[in-house]
Amino acid sequence: MNQLQRMLDKEAIREASLLYTRGIDRHDDELMARAYHPGAKDDHGEYIGDAAGFIPYARKVHAENWDIHQHFITNQTIDLDGDTAHVVTYFLATLRRKNGPIDLVGGRYADRFEKRDGRWAIAERACMIEFTGELAAAQMAVPPDLFLHGTWDKNDISYQRPLKTSRPPRRPN
Length: 173
Known about the structure:
This protein is an alpha+beta fold. The chain has helices at about 5-25, 30-35, 50-65; strands at about 35-45, 45-50, 65-80, 85-95, 100-115, 120-135.
């Protein structure tokens, strides 16, 4: 396999991994589904089954338990083997409970990605939680209207194409 194709394949796998985190954090089922192939399986602790069922399950659990959450992917190894890749991705998640404390979770995804019809996506996923913790409730030290706030739908500013900010200019005192 030539080096350029290997780089393109690895980048497509990284993009699919990012689709998953953006989709779960924005409660965007369509975006999250693009990270998986149809019929993909996901072993995600309490939920073990097909990815098509996991996606609405994850959205429901996140909405019921937390009011803000962010999932981060960090180190990632990608072992290509033709149209299959064995991928290990480390992750961190911060999830603020509705009653205040922040849950911190660290773990890894062990994935089998496949390239089907030119598209890389997850075929099998195993989620491993390696540590959890609780952070004290965070109080924003700035006025609540100082920064924009995200939403769990396509009204979130990150979906705007092209991005155009509309708030009036503000200068520090």
